Amino acid sequence: MADSSEPTNGVDATPIVSPLERRNSLEKHLQTRPEEQDLKNRHILLDTTAAPALQAKQAVLERQRITDNLKKGLSKRPEKEDLVEKNILPDSTAAPALQEKQRELERHMRANSLEKHLQARPKAEELVKEGILQGA
């Protein structure tokens, strides 16, 4: 039993929002619309003066230019052996995460070796007795 308030064809033709409300909504959104320069700064719009038909080709050429510059810079880069020779890079085969611990261990080993040699050093009296050091 169909109620008389329901449409007979199943489609409600009443508008959801009145045209005046829709126009006011559009105006409100246009007022809060970001500026063109802001969109360019956020890389939403392309900052270019090229025709839209050429913008894709311009982007490809720019990427190719950057790639070429990077390859040229990398080709001038000194070899690892040169950097190790100039003491810019450490001469280590350890993983980069372990290199700091390796340097610390080497430092402690040198300190221990130096301490050991200092303790084994002959006393001044012995050196005078052997004629190596002149007595004062």
UniProtKB/TrEMBL annotation:
Keywords: Nucleus, Repeat. It comes from Friedmanniomyces simplex. Residues 1-40 are annotated as: Disordered. SMART domains: RPEL (SM00707). It is found in: Nucleus. The keyword Nucleus applies. GO terms for cellular component: nucleus. It comes from the Eukaryota. PROSITE patterns: RPEL. One of its GO terms (biological process) is positive regulation of transcription by RNA polymerase II. Signal peptide: none annotated. RPEL repeats lie at residues 24-49, 68-93, 112-136. This is RPEL repeat protein. InterPro entries: Myocardin-like, RPEL_repeat. Residues 20-40 have a biased composition (Basic and acidic residues). Transmembrane segments: none annotated. The keyword Nucleus applies. Gene3D superfamilies: 6.10.140.2040, 6.10.150.10. One of its GO terms (molecular function) is transcription coactivator activity. Pfam families: RPEL. Coiled coil: none annotated.
